[in-house]
């Protein structure tokens, strides 16, 4: 009887180990998945493959940003009323975007592509400073910092892939270099703790918001341009 119990425990332990290792490989494969492996200039990837990789990356970034926001909220924002201050406080808030899925479906694909490019470019600077300033945040969990570092890197990969997608969908058209300037660095460096914590909270809130939009727009674009809306 005891031997059977030991065998059952060993089998269960091995199964748990396999699941953990499997999850690690999934995370690693997503994290190391450049949209254009040989760089934009030498990219020979098909449009469908480019969209496949872009959608995987955008979904990955949104998941990371949601996890990071939730962890920060739990660690630093409880009882401070930060959420009520975040209305229209994102540096990309003035960018006209579809309000819902129906409006997005009625938007020209050229406009959606340029919208995604603009939002991605608008996050290059904030993500760099988020990582830099978070290193000095008192008692910041390693998981929050590691997610911020990962998002910064994957945002660059996704932007590179989107530039290639736009080049294939609109060959010969000059790229849109528009982006929104982020004015929030001084707030991240404030001496007052609550002001500084709200600046981090607001930035993470906006990142989650914008990454969700990008994820949704890319899924819609993939359905429209690759599957002719049959999905």
Word description of this protein:
The protein has 231 residues and is mainly alpha-helical. The protein is 69% helix and 0% strand. Helix 2 packs antiparallel against helix 6. The longest helix has 35 residues, at 193-227. The termini are far apart.
Summarize the helices and strands and which ones pair or pack:
Elements: H1 2-31, H2 47-77, H3 101-106, H4 109-122, H5 124-134, H6 142-169, H7 185-188, H8 193-227
Range of helix content: 55-70%
Radius of gyration: 21 Å
Number of helical stretches of at least 4 residues: 8
* Order of helix and strand elements from N to C terminus: HHHHHHHH
Percent strand equals: under 5%
Query: What low-confidence regions span 5 or more consecutive residues with pLDDT below 50?
Result: 1-29
Number of strands: 0
Shape field: elongated
How many angstroms separate the termini?
A: 54 Å
Structural class category:
mainly alpha
Provide the residue-averaged pLDDT. 84
Major sheet details = none
Quick overview:
This protein has 231 residues and is mainly α.
Descriptive key words:
231 residues; mainly alpha; 8 helices; disordered N terminus
């Amino acid at each position: 009887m005891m031997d059977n119990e030991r065998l059952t425990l060993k089998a269960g332990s091995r199964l748990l180990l396999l699941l953990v290792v499997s999850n690690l490989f999934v995370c690693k494969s997503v994290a190391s998945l450049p949209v254009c492996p040989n760089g934009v200039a030498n990219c020979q990837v098909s449009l469908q493959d480019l969209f496949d990789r872009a959608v995987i990356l955008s979904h990955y970034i949104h998941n990371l940003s949601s996890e990071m926001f939730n962890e920060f909220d739990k660690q630093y924002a409880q009882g401070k009323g930060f959420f009520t201050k975040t209305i229209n406080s994102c540096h990309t808030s003035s960018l006209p975007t579809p309000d819902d899925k129906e409006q997005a479906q009625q938007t020209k694909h050229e406009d959606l592509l340029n919208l995604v490019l603009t939002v991605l470019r608008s996050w290059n600077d904030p993500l760099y400073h988020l990582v830099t300033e978070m290193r000095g945040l008192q008692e910041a969990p390693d998981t929050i910092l590691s997610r911020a570092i990962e998002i910064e890197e994957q945002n660059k990969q996704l932007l590179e892939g989107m530039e290639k997608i736009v080049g294939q969908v609109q060959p010969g058209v000059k790229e849109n270099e528009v982006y929104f300037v982020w004015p929030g660095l001084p707030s991240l460096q404030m001496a007052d703790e609550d002001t500084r914590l709200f600046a981090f909270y607001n930035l993470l809130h906006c990142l989650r918001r914008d990454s969700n939009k990008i994820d949704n727009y890319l899924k819609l674009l993939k359905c429209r341009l690759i599957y002719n809306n049959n999905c």
